[in-house]
Amino acid sequence: MATITAKTFLITGVSSGLGRAFAEGALGAGHRVIGTVRNEGDANTFAALAAGRAYPLILDVTDFAAIPAAVAEAERHAGAVEVLVNNAGYGHEGVLEESSMDDLQRQFAANVYGPVAMMKAVLPGMRKRRSGHIVNVTSMGGFITMPGISFYCGSKFALEGISEALGKEVADFGIRVTALAPGQFRTDWAGRSMDRTPRSISDYDAVMDPIRAARQAKSGNQPGDPAKAAQALLAIVDAETPPVRLFLGEDALGVVHQKLDAMKAEIAAWDALSRSTSFAS
């Protein structure tokens, strides 16, 4: 049986859902996990998962100013962060025209700005040590789009782009960056964890009402197994050459391939116009 080298993970949002599954998987494999939670009760519950290896960190990832000191304090107890998993975030459901700018700001604060602040907190240490792995949990909605979650898709597209560009910036330092893009997993993402904007414009009923009803009906019956997602996370962390992007789930792969085919066809159809914009040689 192979002996693992225990690493220190920092996983945001470990109270429930994929974050809890990621933490349990890492702890089960013998790693140390610093897990962010929002309150004392969740902190106690998390610490009890593995005495001496589960380190709760009470932190709101949208409190950007608090992140550097909180991460530094956690590292003093658990050791330098070798793997950062930016998992914390939430879904916003709402037609763009019906949704407010405050909705958009809150979505990006949790799904983009918070993860960036976490990355900035661990990068100096990883760069100094010339090693580390950052895993940003995005979504299949960071590559494909669906009506009714435009703000969510926009935030995940942004995190995908930041992840890919950052990976090129830090590759020479031995730091790897992976965007982990799940499809539909059996969590509360589409249930109590989702922020829903009230409907107000009847013109969107035909598009939005069936989507909202189907999403609510599917909540709790999604095909993805969070425990298997955790094993996939461990596999890429152990990989000598981890992927830049990994989609999780047959549903995600299916819609991604459909989009790629459609993109290729559209690019080909408009090829001449695309090429027409250069100065004549």
Report on the structure:
This protein is an alpha/beta fold and 281 residues long. The chain is built from nine helices and nine strands. The protein has helices at 17-28, 40-47, 67-78, 101-129, 150-170, 205-218, 226-238, 250-269, 271-275; strands spanning 8-11, 32-37, 54-58, 83-86, 92-93, 132-137, 175-182, 195-196, 245-248. The strands form two sheets. It has a seven-stranded parallel beta sheet, sandwiched between helices. Strands 5-8 form a two-stranded parallel sheet. Helix 5 links the parallel strand 6 (132-137) and strand 7. Helix 1 packs across helix 7, helix 3 (67-78) crosses helix 4 (101-129) and helix 4 packs parallel to helix 5. It is globular. The mean pLDDT is 94.
Provide a quick synopsis of the model.
This protein has 281 residues and is an alpha/beta fold. Helix content is 48%, strand content 15%. Helix 1 (17-28) packs across helix 7.
Q: What's the layout of helices and strands?
A:
Elements: E1 8-11, H1 17-28, E2 32-37, H2 40-47, E3 54-58, H3 67-78, E4 83-86, E5 92-93, H4 101-129, E6 132-137, H5 150-170, E7 175-182, E8 195-196, H6 205-218, H7 226-238, E9 245-248, H8 250-269, H9 271-275
Parallel strand pairs: 1-2, 1-4, 2-3, 4-6, 5-8, 6-7, 7-9
The structural class is alpha/beta
Strand content: 5-15%
Strands across the major sheet, in which order? 3-2-1-4-6-7-9
Contiguous low-pLDDT stretches (5 residues minimum) are none
Shape: globular
| Arithmetic mean of pLDDT | 94
- List the helices and strands in order: EHEHEHEEHEHEEHHEHH
Main β-sheet description: 7 strands, parallel
Q: What count of helical segments does DSSP give?
A: 9
| Backbone CA Rg | 20 Å
Distance between the termini: 64 Å
Number of strands: 9
* Helix residue percentage: 40-55%
